[in-house]
What we know:
seven-stranded parallel β-sheet, SDR_fam
Amino acid sequence: xxxxxxxxxxxxxLTGAAGGIGREITALFYDAGAxxxxxxxxxxxxxxxxxxxxxxGERIAIMKMxxxxxxxxxxxxxxxxxxxxxxxxxxxxxxxxxEQLVESMTDEQWRQVMTINLDGVFFLxxxxxxxxxxxxxxxxxxxxxxxxxxYGHSHYAATKAAIxxxxxxxxxxxxxRIRVNAISPGIIETRMTGDxxxxxxxxxxxxxxxxxxxxASEVATVSxxxxxxxxxxxxxxxxxxxxxxxxxG
Length: 249
Ligand SMILES: NC(=O)c1ccc[n+]([C@@H]2O[C@H](COP(=O)([O-])OP(=O)(O)OC[C@H]3O[C@@H](n4cnc5c(N)ncnc54)[C@H](O)[C@@H]3O)[C@@H](O)[C@H]2O)c1
């Protein structure tokens, strides 16, 4: 797929950078000239990604971190400020998707998903604002699950519904300085959906009007659109990237 953007001189800070979607966002933004601050728990993967794109470390800075840790977030933001003077685009993409029915879910299991998928996003968004440059953009990662629920993933779906709501309130509070939008991916082939695809893959494809699952690169292009000047009047929007599997009213 050839889609070109120009983010020369702009800086993207991305959590979950070693994930399936994070890797594609990294590749697209790096090729488009951006500086990148890549954050994830998986240090080895971060090092591989950085070495693959930017062995000299000129436009990519990496840091192993837990996106739900305030101390780690503070350190990551200090890195972004030190290396690139601030942040233009912010994408909290780190997330977990464990399976557990409500009946047998422990309070700890519920809390862990809230902590990583929701608290961590708030901790980062709030703390990044002082170093975000005017005209910047935030792209949040919601999910199909946040709109219609998800069997066996009540905690995950609840956090993603909250992200949709948070996106709208942030739009009200941060405009016109910063645009805020969200992407709701459907079934995208990454490590996150591996188990789901093994058990329900065929059924999901047959329910998808486009007749296939999505690729991470197809989420990355939408994230780039939302940061770009092509989306200069798009704010508070939630863009579904799901091949028609779910069509919001
Ligand atoms: N893949 C899909 O179909 C799909 C669908 C809807 C929404 N999403 C959302 O898109 C985003 C990216 O998903 P993906 O498919 O790339 O998932 P993925 O599992 O491939 O990647 C997630 C990344 O987040 C990192 N991570 C998890 N917890 C972390 C923590 N506490 N601190 C730092 N890093 C942490 C993991 O190490 C991993 O690299 C997530 O927010 C996810 O909920 C994905």
